[in-house]
Amino acid sequence: MENIFEGRRAALIDMDGVLYDSMPGHTLAWKGMMDSLGVGCTREEFYLYEGMTGKATIDLLMRREFGHGVSDERATQLYADKSRRFREWGPAPQMPGAARMLAALEKGGLTRVLVTGSGQNSLLTALDRDYPGAFPADCRVTAYDVTHGKPDPEPYLKGAQKAGVTPAEAIVIENAPLGVRAGKAAGAFTIAVTTGPIPREAFEKEGADLIFSSMEEFADYLEALLARK
For the structural domain made of 23-89, what CATH number should be given? Predict the structure, then answer.
């Protein structure tokens, strides 16, 4: 069993699909918004775009359907519509095992930094209520803090910077292939947790260092490491 605590000082943690079981709501909201524009898409494909900025996701699908992207102003309007639809879905439940994972990381001496491509204020606001003290304001990287979303390494490079560590001293915890690609490109040890419908092979292809089938399994793994100390 590899000791991921050894030589590492920070954990850079994605939000959607890691801390919250929010991807069903996101995929429903994205598809509803795109359907209103006449853009053909499936809910499942949005799992593959997770971690990209809203503008990048909108441009990708608009170019595929109509051959052109949209202005920043139009993208802001469309993302606001997607956000409204997400809020109507209702509060996203906490991911089972996430609280145990965060507690184990803290016990192992790792600084915890949120690194999310999301700008969903309803979830960001809920963090302090659901995971009190886990992510102070100076330990968060969101869609508002980056120019390039995942799979660009910028979000995780900024996360390491906020933690005051080098990327090699950090672990990344992700549930999306593009997030795994970003973590690896940043130079961090990258862990995938397959909480969505994306097959394990997609994470292997992106070079994930460890893969777990659920947050509960990952929390068990961390607790077992700590018990060996």
Answer: 1.10.150.240
pTM: 0.89
- Residue 156, helix vs strand vs coil: helix
For strand 189-193 and strand 10-13, is the pairing parallel, antiparallel, or unpaired?
unpaired
Q: Could you give the CA distance from residue 135 to residue 155 in angstroms, rounded to a whole number?
A: 16
- Helices 154-163, 177-186: axis angle to 10 degrees equals 60
* pLDDT of 60: 96
pLDDT digits (tens, 9 = 90+) for 100-138: 999 999 999 999 999 987 776 777 788 989 999 999 989
Q: How far is CA 224 from CA 4, 17, 18, 193, in A?
A: 12, 23, 20, 17
Q: What's CA 192's distance to the chain center, in Å?
A: 10
* The CATH number of domain 10-22+93-227, selected from 3.40.50.1000, 3.40.50.2000, 3.50.50.60, 1.10.1760.20: 3.40.50.1000
Q: How far is CA 13 from CA 37, 84, 94, 215, in A?
A: 33, 25, 14, 12
User: Parallel, antiparallel, or unpaired for β 140-141 and 189-193?
Assistant: unpaired
Cβ-contact 69, 58 below 8 angstroms: yes
Of the candidates 9, 13, 8, which has an alpha carbon nearest to the alpha carbon of residue 218? 13
Note the helical H segments in the chain.
Answer: 23-36, 45-49, 54-66, 72-89, 98-107, 121-130, 154-163, 177-186, 200-205, 215-227
